[in-house]
Design a protein that fits this description.
Strand content: 5-15%
Helix content: 55-70%
Pfam families: ADK
GO molecular function, one term: AMP kinase activity
Shape: globular
Keywords: ATP-binding, Cytoplasm, Kinase, Nucleotide-binding, Nucleus, Pyrimidine biosynthesis, Transferase
EC number: 2.7.4.3
Structural class: alpha/beta
Bound molecules: adenosine-5'-diphosphate, cytidine-5'-diphosphate, magnesium ion
CATH superfamily: P-loop containing nucleotide triphosphate hydrolases
CATH topology: Rossmann fold
GO biological process, one term: pyrimidine nucleotide biosynthetic process
Oligomer: single chain
């Protein structure tokens, strides 16, 4: 139903990436868990190229792209930008950069991101590196990050961490639906 997964299914097409066959490692963890910091170390020691989904999205906003406002709003709210948009940026970066080993940091953020990436690019990650960190520590780090990011404030941070269940039933269910919808859309397709 109009998702990137459906589009790829219909066309039965894989992107040019399936020719390049790069090695990909997904680097995951909550906001502030240190993904970007450790990716910089891995780049230095192991020759990977670091692709941060968040950095690519922020660059897209700066470039004045037609999706810029939508991306800006979603980042400010701590919600996940549609897979189609993020995957295009990742594909472009992988094709343009002359390396065959990539750390993909902050992607996938959900199951729909993951399935769409695999279907569209044909790439299965070598492995997933997950940085496990307490919310208390992540919050402390984000509030001290000092990179001028619109989402490094307590309101957005709390939205990014979890569903706030201290609100009225209807509002909590809005947040619950946002988690289920991408997966259920795919199952119904
Ligand atoms: N192990 C650590 N201990 C303390 N501070 C850290 C650690 N790792 C990262 N930081 C700091 O925490 C903040 C968030 O790190 P960052 O790499 O941007 O995380 P992420 O990309 O997962 O959000 C940065 O200011 C960074 O310097
Ligand atoms: N796969 C992704 C990654 C980031 N994003 C957006 O970008 C924001 C910042 O992501 P990031 O990876 O730079 O954040 P950190 O984990 O580094 O703090 C997220 O909160 C989302 O709004 C997204 O929509 N989809
Ligand atoms: Mg980061």
């Amino acid at each position: 139903m109009g998702t990137v997964v459906d589009a790829a299914n219909k066309e039965g097409a894989k992107s040019a990436l399936s020719e390049k066959k790069p090695k990909v490692v997904f680097v995951l963890g909550g906001p502030g868990s240190g993904k970007g910091t450790q990716c910089a170390n891995i780049v230095e020691h192991f020759g990977y190229t670091h692709l941060s989904a968040g950095d690519l999205l922020r660059a897209e906003i700066k470039s004045g792209s037609e999706n810029g406002t939508m991306i800006q709003n979603m980042i400010s709210e701590g919600t996940i930008v549609p897979s189609e948009v993020t995957i295009k940026l990742l594909e472009k970066a992988i094709m343009e950069i002359d390396n065959d080993k990539f750390l993909i940091d902050g992607f996938p953020r959900n199951e729909e991101n993951r399935a769409a990436f695999e279907l569209v690019t044909g790439i299965v990650p070598e492995f997933v590196l997950f940085f496990d960190c307490s919310e208390e520590e992540m919050e402390r780090r984000l509030l001290g990050r000092n990179q001028g990011r619109v989402d490094d404030n307590i309101e957005t941070i709390r939205k990014r961490f979890k569903i706030d269940a201290g609100k009225p039933v209807e509002e909590v269910f809005e947040a619950v639906k946002a988690v289920f919808a991408p997966v259920e859309d795919k199952a119904a397709a």
